[in-house]
Design brief:
single chain, 294 residues, alpha+beta, Chloramphenicol Acetyltransferase, 3-stranded antiparallel β-sheet
């Protein structure tokens, strides 16, 4: 991303200085799963659904923009506007990523026993929700052409799983050692959701609620987001009236070492603001949203 590489930087991140408490916590609590904070929030998606209805008018089903596409675009915008949310901790050090990345799991078919595929998206700074939607639609359509992995991280994982157990165990120990020092080869990290800024689970697509989902100690992923089923709910509005609104539940598990609760809270407020004002998604990601953080 054009940053000058300094001593202590990694291939995928720039080392940053942090307050003493944060730095000490990286050593006292070295496992990401020891530092999880879970946030659960109901978000009003009524305006977003109206926006999608207008966007999809006249489109074929296969080309329609979905709420999930808007969620991915909104999360990407949040990362651009809230850079501390794009940090990770590895090897007792705090880093800021050199790129913004979002990943998710997609099923090849909605049937029992069907394989899942790992999807990985790196949006451009000038992308809007339109470009992001087309990228997701294109990637998923390409993946579903085959019943089995045909390349990328999925195929690498299949090859690892087929190794004899002693070789498999030794390989895993080596990979975890290299992971600690940031030396894992790109062939193992590129496209791996464990190395993405945010890993998203669209549970609403399989009619499930947003749930708590743990982080992983392997890799650099610091944020896990689950999207639940869209449902209707009576809401007390600001003017004192009650309305039936379209609500989506969102769960997020974060590594508390990358920022403080105040920063997390403001980032969540930005996401809610984007849902309530979806026209913001038409702006390039690197343009300010206009949200008032006061």
């Amino acid at each position: 991303m054009g940053k000058k590489v300094k001593r202590g930087d990694r291939r995928d991140g720039t080392r940053v200085k942090a307050p003493g408490l944060q730095t000490v916590m990286t050593a006292l609590f070295p496992n990401r799963t020891d530092c999880e904070v879970h946030i659960y929030q109901d978000i009003d998606a009524t305006n977003l659904l109206k926006y999608l209805e207008a966007k999809n008018e006249g489109r074929e089903k296969a080309d329609r923009m979905t709420m999930f596409h808007c969620v991915i675009a909104g999360l990407a915008r949040m990362l651009y506007e809230r850079p501390m949310m794009n940090r990770f901790i590895q090897g007792y050090r705090i880093y800021e990523r050199n790129e913004i990345s979002l990943s998710f799991v997609a099923k090849r078919r909605f049937t029992d026993g069907t394989e899942e595929s790992l999807m990985y998206l790196v949006p451009n700074p000038t992308d809007t929700v339109n470009e992001i939607s087309q990228k997701i639609l294109g990637d998923v359509a390409e993946m579903r052409k085959s019943e089995h992995a045909t390349g990328g991280i999925d195929e690498i994982l299949d090859k690892f799983a087929a190794l004899p157990r002693p070789i498999f165990a030794a390989s895993v120990r080596l990979i975890r050692y290299l992971d600690f020092w940031g030396l894992n080869p790109k062939v193992l990290t590129d496209g791996d959701p464990n190395y993405s800024s945010i890993l998203v689970a669209n549970l609403g697509s399989v009619k499930l609620p947003a749930i708590y989902h743990h982080l992983n100690n392997y890799g650099t992923n610091s944020i896990m987001v689950t999207i639940g089923t869209l449902h209707k709910e009576e809401v007390l509005m600001d003017d004192g009236t009650k309305q039936i609104r379209d609500i989506v539940s969102v769960g997020a598990t974060l590594d508390e070492r990358i920022a403080d609760g105040f920063y997390f809270g403001r980032s969540l407020k930005l996401i809610k603001y984007i849902f309530e004002n979806p026209e913001i998604l038409e702006k390039p990601l690197n343009e300010p949203s206009g949200f008032d953080y006061k």
